[in-house]
Amino acid sequence: MSIKEYPRLINEIPRGTKRYGTIKKLRSAAERANSTIKEDIKILEKPRVLNGFRANILGQMAGITLLLKRACSFIAKITNQFAKCLKLKPPPIPKSIQNIIQLE
Question: Which residues of the chain have pLDDT under 70?
């Protein structure tokens, strides 16, 4: 595997290194948003834009879709954290009853 064959899979700068971290911090939020819209949501993969008005609508739809995706992932993440935190614990069982249960 080479970088030229798989540029998205193999980076020139290895992930997890200090240099990669500083470069990632330097990327603007707009670059990250555009990357997500283009690669994850795939709205901008093959856009059919004939004039500026349609380009404006496509950009707005992409932004709304990105915000909805981020909101849904946030809600799912918080819901999972609450589910882990608030798991129901069984009521305490008296020792006399525990002994009977263990004998069976």
Answer: 1, 3, 8, 88-90, 103-104
**10 CB neighbour count, 10 Å cutoff:** 13
Retrieve residue 78's tokens: 């918080």
CA distance 104 to 102: 5
Q: What does the domain layout of the chain look like in residue ranges?
A: 18-103
Token pair of 87 as six digits:
């798991």
DSSP 8-state secondary structure symbol assigned to residue 90: P
Cα–Cα distances in Å, from 57 out to 48, 64, 76?
A: 11, 11, 28
What is the residue type of 104?
E
Cα–Cα distance, 38 to 45 (Å, whole number): 6
Among 27, 28, 68, 60, smallest CA distance to 44 is for 60
Task: Tell me the whole-structure pTM to 2 decimals.
Answer: 0.56
